[in-house]
Design goal:
Radius of gyration: 54 Å
Number of domains: 4
Strand order of the largest sheet: 2-15-19-17-16-20
Structural class: alpha+beta
Number of helices: 9
Shape: elongated
Mean pLDDT: 86
Low-confidence stretches: 1-35
Helix content: 40-55%
Length: about 525
């Protein structure tokens, strides 16, 4: 038989269940949220810091590889690796003696042209003109004396040549003054015997021709005739000198002469050769003296003509142009000279040198490396997500892999590139930091681990970042209202600096001493 509960009893039990639910709900509504309390955190004041951590490379403030811009031989080296150098200091020079001379000559030309310009602008006094006339007259007289002296020089040279052929070397031949002279001793080389005989005949012919030329001139001859005689005399002496050289060679290679006889012949030839050389030198010097004196006479005459004509504005302008041209030549040669001198573009330290004195270097090939003096820098690349946090003069702590984490250096941001640098497909921004002080431990090329302090707030309220709950645009924490019962409430807060140390600044919503639920 089925046992059925009466309907009125079932309604009674349903009513009792509804009442029980309402009682429990009311308890929670009026008594607040209650749960077991785990870890807590007390809101307090302190310092919140935000840092950006990057890895970079130590670099010198300045570094450069220096090279000559022209090829040349290293003449002087003034430095060694490790030396400190100052800006403008000479490091190396190429062989430049020719350029030094050209610069000196160009400067002298400027002085000369400037002196001429000064005289033009000042004008010439009558007394100066008289002095210039006298200088012209003296220079012209000196020139005439040089010409007049040619006659005596040429006759003296002829006498020495005649003595060399007919006296000093006459004993070497029989029938020496004929057209068929014979050598008085034997030679092992038959061709050499033929050559010395032919040169003896030619020397005799030269002397005959020379003597005929001398008859046609005198000290009163024209300058043109005297100068022509001077040139011909030098040619005659060259022939006689060749003959004497062949005679000496014949004596040195004789067969049959005694040592005494050979020595006597040599002494006579040496005497003759010395006389010929001295005569040739005298004639050559006189030719040069005449050429130089003629130039002097021309220059003095030109100056006198200029003095007598006076200085026109056109003349002065033309002379100014000469001065400017001379100065331009100086600048050109000085620039060429400067290319042979390698100087330090800034103060620093020599780190590498690849040449020694005497090496030939090519243009644009580095020969020395410098790093600048002063504090080293660090170059790092900061991700675009962090770059907005940084600013110039932000402080940083630095460790170098070479010395470990216990050795800490300080630095600050000195430059942030405005344009990005793509590294491995990621946009980064080159950031440069400078060490606060110099230290011998800091070397270029070392890997640097950098923590940049981007923001710092002191004496502010803060909570643990992990305890902040984010929902949409709101940030909340669970504040404990009853520690004993574990009752909490959601409190909306306004945050400030999010620290890299796990703390976040609280601007509003909490007060110092509040206890919040912590994970």
């Amino acid at each position: 038989m089925q046992n059925k509960t009466p309907w009125y009893k079932r309604k009674k039990w349903i009513a009792l269940g509804v009442i029980a639910v309402l009682i429990v709900a009311g308890f929670f509504i009026f008594s607040g949220q209650k749960q077991a309390v785990g870890s807590t955190f007390e809101v307090k004041r302190g310092t919140v810091t935000s840092e950006v951590s990057v890895t970079g490379k130590v670099v010198p403030v300045k570094s450069i590889d220096l090279a000559f811009n022209q090829t040349g031989r290293i003449n002087n080296i003034y430095i060694e690796v490790g030396n400190k150098v100052s800006q403008g200091q000479t490091l190396f020079t190429l062989d430049n003696a020719d350029l030094v001379a050209q610069v000196a000559q160009a400067r002298a030309t400027v002085d000369s042209q400037q002196a001429t310009l000064d005289n033009l602008e000042k004008g010439t006094r009558p007394e100066e003109i008289q002095v210039h006339r006298a200088a012209v007259a003296k220079a012209d007289q000196d020139l005439q004396n040089y010409y007049a002296g040619i006659y005596d020089l040429v006759n003296d040279a002829y006498a020495k040549a005649d003595d060399a052929v007919h006296n000093q070397t006459n004993a070497l031949f029989t029938n020496g003054n004929s057209n068929t002279p014979e050598l008085t001793f034997q030679l092992s080389d038959s061709q050499a015997r033929v050559d010395i005989v032919n040169l003896r005949i030619r020397a005799g012919v030269e002397l005959s021709d020379w003597k005929a030329e001398l008859i046609s001139i005198s000290s009163a001859s024209t300058n043109t005739d005297l100068l022509s005689a001077l040139g011909k005399a030098q040619q005659h002496l060259i022939v006689v000198r060749s003959y004497l050289a062949s005679a000496l060679n014949a004596v040195n290679n004789n067969t049959g002469l005694s040592d005494t006889t050979a020595s006597t012949y040599r002494a006579s030839i040496y005497t003759a050769r010395t006389n010929i050389i001295n005569s040739y030198t005298s004639l050559s010097n006189r030719e040069q003296n005449i050429a130089s004196q003629e130039l002097t006479v021309k220059q003095l005459n030109d100056q006198l003509t200029l003095d007598l004509a006076g200085s026109t504005s056109q003349t002065i302008a033309a002379q100014k142009a000469q001065v400017m041209q001379a100065e331009a030549n100086v600048q050109y040669y000085e620039s060429q000279l400067a290319k042979t001198i390698l100087r330090a573009p800034f103060s620093g330290t020599v780190t590498k040198m690849s040449i020694v004195r005497g090496d030939v270097v090519s243009s644009n090939v580095p020969v020395v490396s410098l790093i600048g003096a002063g504090k080293f820098e660090i170059e790092a690349y900061v991700a675009e997500s962090d770059i907005a946090k940084l600013a110039i003069n932000d402080e940083a702590s630095v460790t170098l892999d070479a010395y470990g984490k216990d050795v800490v250096f300080t630095a600050k941001v000195v430059k942030i590139d405005l344009s990005e640098t793509i590294l491995d497909g990621v946009a980064t921004y080159k950031t440069t930091l400078q060490f606060d002080s110099e230290d011998q431990k800091i070397l270029p090329g070392l890997t640097a681990n950098v923590d940049i302090l981007s923001e710092k707030k002191e004496n502010v309220l803060f909570v643990l970042t992990r305890d902040i709950l984010t929902g949409g645009s709101k940030k909340t924490v669970k504040r404990i209202t009853d520690i004993g019962n574990g009752t909490t409430e959601d409190v909306e807060i306004e945050t400030g600096v999010r620290g890299s140390d796990g703390n976040t600044e609280v601007i509003s919503g909490l007060k110092e001493g509040d206890i919040i639920l912590s994970d």
